[in-house]
């Protein structure tokens, strides 16, 4: 059975993968806080503060890393922070040698 869930993150995602999002602390937050048109340090800090108190932070972070989510704050991480964790410092150097 393929279920779909719409939420603050917009679009449609398979419920089996993101059912935990129903329990997310961001559920009632302004989506612009997590998916701003113009990210800023203040917006990121405010979104991360919501994530810090979220009971599904680990599930959210693991999903975003596994799915390669390229936009928004997920699991308390910015897109840049997620990219860094997928490609640790020095990975280019080891590929070139
Ligand atoms: S960790 Fe953050 S982005 Fe993920 S569900 Fe919780 S509040 Fe939302």
From TrEMBL:
The keyword Iron applies. Binds 1 [4Fe-4S] cluster per subunit. Following nitrosylation of the [4Fe-4S] cluster binds 1 [4Fe-8(NO)] cluster per subunit. InterPro entries: 4FE4S_WBL, Whib. Keywords: 4Fe-4S, Cytoplasm, Disulfide bond, DNA-binding, Iron, Iron-sulfur, Metal-binding, Transcription, Transcription regulation. Residues 76-97 are annotated as: Disordered. It is found in: Cytoplasm. [4Fe-4S] cluster binds at residues 26, 51, 54, 60. Transmembrane segments: none annotated. The Fe-S cluster can be nitrosylated by nitric oxide (NO). It holds the Pfam family Whib. Its cofactor is [4Fe-4S] cluster. Residues 25-84 form the 4Fe-4S Wbl-type domain. The keyword Acetylation does not apply. Acts as a transcriptional regulator. Probably redox-responsive. The apo- but not holo-form probably binds DNA. Belongs to the WhiB family. This is Transcriptional regulator WhiB.
């Amino acid at each position: 059975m393929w279920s779909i869930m719409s939420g603050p993150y917009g679009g449609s995602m398979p419920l089996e993968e993101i059912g935990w999002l129903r329990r997310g602390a961001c559920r009632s937050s302004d989506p612009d806080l997590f998916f701003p048109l113009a990210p800023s340090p203040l917006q990121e800090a405010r979104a991360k503060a919501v994530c810090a108190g979220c009971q599904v932070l680990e599930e959210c972070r693991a999903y975003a890393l596994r799915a390669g989510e390229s936009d928004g704050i997920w699991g308390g991480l910015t897109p840049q922070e997620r990219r860094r964790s997928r490609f640790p410092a020095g990975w280019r150097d080891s590929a070139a040698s």
